[in-house]
Structure formats: C-alpha cells, structure tokens
Design a protein that fits this description.
35% of the residues lie in helices and 17% in strands. The strands form 2 sheets. Strands 1, 3, 5, 6 and 7 form a 5-stranded mixed sheet that branches. It folds into 2 domains: 1-30, no CATH class; 37-170, no CATH class. It has 172 residues and is α/β, with parallel strands linked by helices.
Length: 172
C-alpha cells in the first residue's frame, strides 16, 4: 500500500505542476490553518551579531534517523534535529508531496546551510545555531493540533536552548 501511495503522490505532484487549474481547485476545497496577526519579533541587535537558526519543512533528516511517515495520509508532525555542520551526503529527503529533484541535486535549495556559512564567513551574520530542525511540510487533520500544541513548542524550546536569535524557515 505504501508504494502505491508514493506513486500516487508523485503523479499528483506532476499533475499539479503541469495543470495549475487542478491545484487551484484542490486549494479551494481544502481547509487551511488560519492565524490572526503575524508572529513577528523585530531583531534586538544587528544581524551581523545575531545567531541564525534554520528550520525546514522539506522532509530533510539524517540518513541515520527514522524517515518521516509517508504512509499516514495526514502526514507526520514530528521533527528531526540535524547538526548544522552536517555534510549533504549524510542527509536524505523523505517527502512525497513535492517535487524535490532540484533539492536532491543541491540540498541548499531547501536547506541553505552552505549559504549561511558564507554569510557568516563574510560577517553578515553573527553565527549559525548548532542544530537545524527538519519537519515534513504535509501536516493535516488531527496532526495539526499535535504540531501546533506539542511539536512546534518543543522545537521553539530547542531553538532557545541552542541560542538562536532569529530563524530562517525554508518551506518546500
């Protein structure tokens, strides 16, 4: 059943990519999470002195970590902590709800650690938090509450513990 669902997801991604009206129709019928206001906090010091963290919803995780659950149609609300000094060869993407062929060729498409390292080397940012946090971006149904009430607050605590002062989110 899992292999069939994987093929179905790949097919749907390609259909949405080539038939935009189909994805627009899906979006009109889908219930999205809505929030009030923008969760924004201005920086308290210059960016060149700020520790930046990276969070992605691209399904990125270490090859040694359990993959995200692709069998659950509501997604997987868990996260994976990845050391920020990780080599691209040590990670994999487990996410069948988007076309990640470009990210498979260059991980910086969804996890721009090399770009952050360049910014740090050039003095544009103060530093990089010790861990990156990876989520699977397809979360629906009962898992939304888990994500909002449990997983996201846990990652926020981790980011604070890591000394992160700003977060760069890369959706997929």
């Amino acid at each position: 059943m899992g292999r069939f669902r994987d093929l179905t997801n790949v097919l749907m991604v390609q259909l949405y990519k080539h038939l935009p009206w189909l994805s627009e129709r899906w979006a009109r019928r889908h219930r999205f999470v809505e929030t009030e206001g923008i969760p924004w906090t201005p920086l308290r010091k210059p960016l060149r002195e700020t520790i930046i963290a990276l969070v992605t919803t691209a399904g990125v995780h270490l090859k040694t970590q359990p993959p995200f659950d692709m069998d659950d149609p509501n997604g997987d609300p868990s996260f994976r902590a990845i050391p920020s000094d990780v080599k691209a060869e040590a990670v994999v993407i487990t996410h069948n709800y988007y076309d990640h062929s470009a990210a498979d060729k260059d991980l910086n498409v969804v996890l721009p650690l090399d770009r952050l390292k360049e910014l740090k080397a050039e003095g544009f940012i103060g530093g990089i938090a010790p861990f990156v946090y990876g989520f699977m971006g397809h979360i629906d149904g009962p898992h939304l509450e888990t994500l909002v009430q449990q997983t996201a607050p846990e990652v926020a605590r981790c980011l604070r513990r890591d000394g992160a002062e700003a977060v760069f989110l890369t959706p997929a």
